[in-house]
Design brief:
174 residues, alpha+beta, Jelly Rolls, four-stranded antiparallel β-sheet, 39% strand
Length: 174
Amino acid sequence: MAYTLDQFIADCKSSLAREPGPPGREQVRANLEKLLANPDFLAQYTGDDQPKGVKVLYEDEKLGFQVLAHINEKAHASPPHDHGASWAIYGQATQYTDMTEWRRVNPESEDSAQLIQTDAYRLGPGQTRAYGPHMIHATAHPEQSWVVRVTGTDLDNLPRYRFHPKRDKILERA
């Protein structure tokens, strides 16, 4: 029997209630891979009839985590950014996402940010990756790519940072 969205959500609740730190998030990441291996799940949520953009598939009222579907109609590359005090787990459903990880090398007390690239890789269909709080990364994907992202909370409610590497500027988003 295929692993369903409902099973994934139940397992997220169990894992994160028992262990909200890295071990619980690792279980969520591994289970997201199982979910992305279900062709029925992919057919239901990635079909051409699905609306483009971001769709909240689930939000947990008690634990706060969200399961989001990102259906990217156009190719897009984000600047380096973080998710503030939250964590995020990316799961690639279709196409790919090129991921770049960054580390800030100057003190946070300075207004400008000096970043160095620490890793770059491609997430292909069925692959997942976890990003801890304040982990700086950038994404780039082609048109018609689809990503499932699980976050520790609604990121719109957190201060987060986008970095403009050419100008070494930090742009805070509230």
